[in-house]
Amino acid sequence: MAQEGKPPESGPQIDPPSEQRPPEEAGAANPSSLSADAEKDAQVEAAKARVAAAKETAQAAAPGAPKAPVKKKEEGPKPVDASGHALVRKLRDQFDGAVIEASEFLGQLSIRIEPSRIVEVCRTLRDDPETPFNYLSDLTCVHYPDQRAAPFEVIYNLYSISANERVRLKVAVNGEGVESVTGVWPAADWPEREVYDLFGVTFRNHPDLRRILLPPDWEGHPLRKDYPLEFVENRWTEKHLPEFTDVQKEQLEQRRAYGLEMLSVPQEREVRELFKRGKEVMPKDK
Questions:
Q1: Strand, coil or helix: what is 135?
Q2: In Å, how far from its chain's centre is CA 197?
Q3: What integer pLDDT is reported at residue 286 of this predicted model?
Q4: What are the residue ranges of helices labelled H in 110-234?
Q5: What domains can you pick out in the chain, each with its CATH number?
Q6: pTM of the full predicted structure?
Q7: Which of 2, 64, 100, 129 supports an S-S bond with 112, CB 3.0-4.6 Å?
Q8: In terms of Cα–Cα distance, which of 86, 188, 170 is closest to 134?
Q9: Distance CA 273, CA 100 (A)
Q10: Residue 42 CB neighbours (<10 A)
Q11: How many angstroms separate the CA atoms of 218 and 278, rounded?
């Protein structure tokens, strides 16, 4: 039994639980949440300031690396003069003044021919013993409105099956047209009709020169650069399509104003109704 008046033996001191602490002492150990958030914000701002200062010091100490020079864009290939080509020399020797110019682009030979000599040049190329261009792979046209004297350019793409060679002939054409080459290659029949239909180029001595895609009484040639891209009103539409009401015209104008030309427009629905009723919209080829 411990004696009265004797101090207790020394030993580890155990703090009383926080629940048993006086209210004043507990409040001093746990500050309010508001002061804790303010302290964290201050620490974050101090850390950001240290990082910014370190970046400024590093940039001032070491100059930045020089920028790499901008690489110039390489120019693409361009057409080169092909006056020395063997085929060009052969045609110039055989046809005085028939070859206007010749160029080569990426291995493709193009020769511009005098329009009045195109048939004889084509026949000679077809019958050439070394490289017989016996296949007319394509016949097409390009419209250049700025070239008033000859705004159309008829293009003949020829291929030699046995020699595996290609050549492109070009002819500048005005309103008088050009001679047909159906006598050289019968396969030129339909391509020439297509050029006549869509560009309006006339081929003299063609066996059956008439439209091939559009109705015979259609006005204009859609592949010309000056042809309108939107729906046009002409005598054919007045004759074969029902007349637009004021409401339908307003709807069409609104669609065009909002860029909705590609959507189904009233005249397309009218054409469908014509076909459903069995009415013949365009005469068939006889």
A1: strand
A2: 26
A3: 41
A4: 118-126, 189-199
A5: 80-204 (3.30.460.80), 235-276 (no CATH)
A6: 0.62
A7: 100
A8: 188
A9: 54
A10: 10
A11: 21
